[in-house]
Specification:
Helix content is 45%, strand content 15%. It is α/β, with parallel strands linked by helices and 461 residues long. Helix 3 (88-100) runs antiparallel to helix 4.
Length: 461
Amino acid sequence: MTKIVIIGAGSAIFGLNTLGSLLRSPKLRGSQIALVDLNAQNLERMTRLADKINQVWDAGMQITSHLHHQEALSGADFVVSAVEVPPREKLWRQDFEIPLKYGVRQPYAENGGPGGFAHTARNINPILEIAGDMQQACPNAWYINFTNPMVRICDAINRYTSIKVVGLCHQIYAGYGMVGYVLADELGINVPDAPFSTHADPKYSPLVHYIAQQTVEKVDIKAAGLNHFTWIVDIRSRLTGEDLYPDLHKAWKRVNPAVEPLTRQVYEAFGLMPVPGDEHLDEYLPWCSDPQTTPWEKFDLSLYDWEGAAQQREEGHQRIDRLVTGEEDIDTLKDTTSEGAVEVIEALSLSFNEYHLAVNLPNIGQINNLPLNAIVETPALLSGMGVQPVAVGNLPEGIAELLRREITVSQLSVDAAVLGDRQLALQALLLDPVITDLNIAKQILEDYLLTYREYLPQFWN
């Protein structure tokens, strides 16, 4: 019997999607599901919903709930986690606004830039606490991570614990959406007459999802690099096996210049198309934050809608309440997706072969010209043997250098956060492409450490 621990289960998005996907999996029928969340109210409402779904769908699961992960870990085979230090949107906004005081405007402030450092440093302690407890309670379990910054969180688990970690992210589908939009005529993709963008605004998501669903059926994309910073290394027709890169290159020239302008120019400069869409790609590039040229205006790079995200979370909790009371049919959850978690659990626990488009794992040679043991994202085969990444060889040297720089920044950020080392933290900021002044880097770091002192005791001991 497979035991699955879901940490952050009270989440209105991650928890609901993961729970709905697990409970409708016939392959996992009879499994144990342990729901964990520090928020008692959110945990209680999700547990009531889980019990109801389990009964109505006759899922045959054994469900328990816990306010602390230590109560749930014993005997676990998989730990699925999407924890964030709260309040998420307030802290993210501060990550962006603190450098603004010193004239530094970040593109996005979530995974790269100074905000990527602050986000990493806050999340490291709770993540390593979970992984450290896993070493005692379930040392052979897999840690399936959804917490951002993905590369840095997985790196911390990989280098500072003995736990097996795999990171999952659905951003590859932004690549499928863009390819389907650009090659719509060649592939016979139905594209409704509506503005297309991979930006984070929820109004764009349905169209990108609709196009991506069609494209996945017709095209195979192999992408490699770092999470939110991957590149298409091979693209072929599933029908004919034809290399579609020549068609893709030509087709971009007829697309409205306002569509993904950053992706388009980076593709032209480096020869491979980046996958994640403009608003994730921009975090890692040195050409998106200059206050003189204001590239965020040229490339139409909008910030995350912090208020909208908080409102969406509240609406999600209200939906859970409606599902529990019967005001909304629980069968609406049959369309949920766990973003790959269920597929990973099924393949690894039941020993069948599953090809996954994008997984984050330590580099054991899947990308030859990136550092060994760094966390990289490639396709992989999942089976009873574990998660075996697809080897893609070398990336073009210009792209590899961009990635190597981000790997160095990521690992310095992790080391600084784990060790409470201010010198390493400063080095991480100084190597980040957003920072161009030594003294300003020092000021930003000091402000972050003071502002987040309650979350970062390791820097004050």
